[in-house]
Each structure stands twice: as C-alpha cells, then as structure tokens.
Fold this sequence. Notes:
heterodimer, A: 113 residues, mainly beta, 7-stranded mixed β-sheet, B: 113 residues, 46% strand
Amino acid sequence: DAEITQSPRHKITETGRQVTLACHQTWNHNNMFWYRQDLGHGLRLIHYSYGVQDTNKGEVSDGYSVSRSNTEDLPLTLESAASSQTSVYFCASSDGGNSYEQYFGPGTRLTVT
Amino acid sequence: DAKTTQPNSMESNEEEPVHLPCNHSTISGTDYIHWYRQLPSQGPEYVIHGLTSNVNNRMASLAIAEDRKSSTLILHRATLRDAAVYYCILRDVAGGSARQLTFGSGTQLTVLP
C-alpha cells in the first residue's frame, strides 16, 4: 500500500546543530508539505513543494530549508537548531492540481536542548 | 484567507450523535469547507469537504448553512475512537494557495463511555 513515512520518529539535538528530518511518500504525489505543531496548537506551514525542483516558503520558514530532487522525498533541514524549534513536525502530500485531500505522516518529535 | 471559529472543546456520550459547529462568516464563493481530525499522537486525517450542498461519506456528514457562513460536522454515532481534535478549514480553490491548508486550533472532542 502507498504510504508516507517520516524518520526519525524522535530526535534530541543540541542548540546550533544542523538537523535533517526525512519525509518519503510512495503515492507519486506532486505536492508535499512540512508543518510544525507546538503543544496545544494547530499546525503551521513551514515549506511546501509542488514538484521536483520547486520549493516555497510557508508561514514559519525562518531557520528551515527544503530541497526536492525527486518526487518521493522532501527533507526538512534545520540549519542551526534553536530551542524555539522544539516541536512535532508533520509531513504531508497531495495529488496535483486542486486535490482536496492531504495525507499526513506520523510525525517527528524534535527536542532541541 | 477567510478564517473559521470553532469551540475549543466539546463532550459527547458514546453512541450518541455529535454536532461540531464551525463559523466562517467571511467565506468567499470559491472557498471549500474541509474537515480534518487529529487522533492523539497521530497526523491529521481528512474527514469530509463540501462547497454548498450537504455531503455524506462513511465517516461523517457535513451540513452547510444556506448562506455558507457556518457549517456543522455530524458524527452520527460517536465511538471512543472518535475522540480527537477536529479542524474546520477553508480552502480557496481560486487562489494561488489552492493546494494549501491553514489549520486553526480546532475543537477537542471528548467521548464519554
């Protein structure tokens, strides 16, 4: 079955380190998204991509970057981790065009100490 | 983007119907109404969506007011597994961000046995 996976599921890192969170989907979806969710709040969009070599900034993109070299993967990099980036990160994908449904991964819980 | 207003929390008894309200008084003609839910420790999942007419699927029903300024997600028979945060989201299919979702704080539904 097609799916979307994230790794690692849990990560503890130190302030100032570079961290990369992986997202892999097997639906062959064009659209991929990264969100963060802070405790007790809704999801906020970090970056998104509508296809290979396409990347765009979302609502809270400062301190994060993404690259899209193939259809299946959209890794999220924290260039210099900060304690304010402690959060749960969700990756999602959807089909091209105006597809109404996004499929979400299980999330990565990141703690920056 | 048009915004939505939902109650922070609601309770329901198991096996009874649940009506989750959402106000969106500034909705535009090209805004679709989407509902997602997030079970504990999981990513959000799509529930239902609609434009003007009421919609039914295997998970729930969506009742949309005639003036489209409010909508109600109906779970016909709540189970303990329906305990989740329910998000009401407007998506403008005519805008440049048609493929994006903007999450609010949602409604925390508690189902009592």
